[in-house]
Amino acid sequence: MNGSTHDDVLARLRELQTGDLPVHGGRTLAYVYDSGLAEVDRIGREAVATYAASNGLDPTSFPSLLTMENELVGFACDLLSAPDTAVGSVTSGGTESVLLAVQGARDSRPDLTSPSMVVPSTVHAAFLKAAHYFGVSARVVPVGSDFRADVAATAAAIDDSTVLVVGSAPSYAHGVIDPIASLASLAGGRGIRCHVDACIGGWVLPYAERLGRPVPPWSFAVEGVTSISVDTHKYGYAPKGTSLLLHRTAELRMPQYFASADWPGYTMLNSTMQSTKSGGPLAGAWAVVQHLGDEGYLELATAVFDAVDRIVAGVPEGLSVVVPPDSTLVALATDDTCDAFTVCDEMRERGWYVQPQMSYAGAPPTIHLSVSAATLTSVDDLLADLAASVAAARTAGPVEVPRGVRDFIEALDPAALTDEDFDGLLAASGLLSDPTAGLALPDRMAPVNAMLDIASPALRESLLIAFLDRLQRPLRG
């Protein structure tokens, strides 16, 4: 491959990006969090670029990164009512914060050969990933009709092997806060760690309280909460790639550290899972937090909660709010005149991205909205387009999976999925009309989502892994 000029490379980047979801404008209600403030975006990008080549591996060589990390953690500690003993680390995102919380809990009990953790069924899948990686059995307990963790079921699941009890503030799928005080009391009474996954809510719920909104207790103000994860690249409105894992004491953080001197190179010392890591994301988060400050975040929280309230109050006929949200996430259900997957497609046609959520444990599919501050100025358009999308979905009718395809899916064994099985499903879904041309995403995803919704969770996982494997193939030449 020959080299390209500066202008050619940037032109190619701009061309590639035309197929992506927009990251500004408040119309992408998943994956990105938009303050709506151009200056916030600008300062974050400039800080990332300034520190792109700096290496967070060694804080003694790049002390500015250590200063920024400690100041960022200090801001978060004040925000989350942490005691003076609290400490924290900057990670690459919520998943790494969760992985470290589970790994640290496991390694705090080296006497256990089969450690376990107790999590609600609504917990983020990152905890199941941690269970898979670290050999910690995940005991999944049900939630009540309010979609919050069942305290009695949690108590029944705790035993001498339990190293961690987890609650969400809020849960991703439904946007409600688990009964953290009760969960922390259960854990504390047994000398077990209690982690609060506040990756979504941690940077916005404290401001909700200041605005007088009802917020169940969830932070370090709750006795027994030992660690909290909170993402700055969500409602901190920082550039992608930063989260914080806070611990009540330095002693609780110690198992998170890794050091290795038994090799001929430098002594490896890591506070997180990464060794070499760009200083860019940390600098971007620090710069945005410094720029906005406490009052700036209060103003953004006012905007995002105004948007949430207007959306909840204005949901059009045919849709309903699954459960009143405690934070900034809204789950919508459809009535029997239309289906959620078609509504999502219709919204995409109208310039919005709303996220489809599959059926689970007998509950039907839902539509997920992660509301940002930038969404406020477009709420009327959002509600109008939701109404139009419901009308279009009613006209189109529910997506029907042909009986033969349904039977084929239900007969598949997730553990023995073959390339031929997968190719058959790709062809049936329209994702592989020509095997020689490779995968091609259809304009409308409702038929694909309807087929995935039929599959068991295990089969859905196998199918999506196979799909991702097909997507990630080298482009040469």
From TrEMBL:
Keywords: Aminotransferase, Lyase, Pyridoxal phosphate, Transferase
One protein family per Pfam: Pyridoxal_deC
GO molecular function: aromatic-L-amino-acid decarboxylase activity; pyridoxal phosphate binding; transaminase activity
Modified residues (N6-(pyridoxal phosphate)lysine): 234
Protein's GO biological process: carboxylic acid metabolic process
SUPFAM superfamilies attached to this UniProt entry: PLP-dependent transferases
Cofactor: pyridoxal 5'-phosphate
InterPro entries xrefs: GrpII_AminoAcid_Decarb, PyrdxlP-dep_de-COase, PyrdxlP-dep_Trfase, PyrdxlP-dep_Trfase_major, PyrdxlP-dep_Trfase_small
Similarity-based family: Belongs to the group II decarboxylase family. Sphingosine-1-phosphate lyase subfamily.
Protein name: Aspartate aminotransferase family protein
Top-level taxonomy: Bacteria, Bacillati, Actinomycetota, Actinomycetes, Propionibacteriales
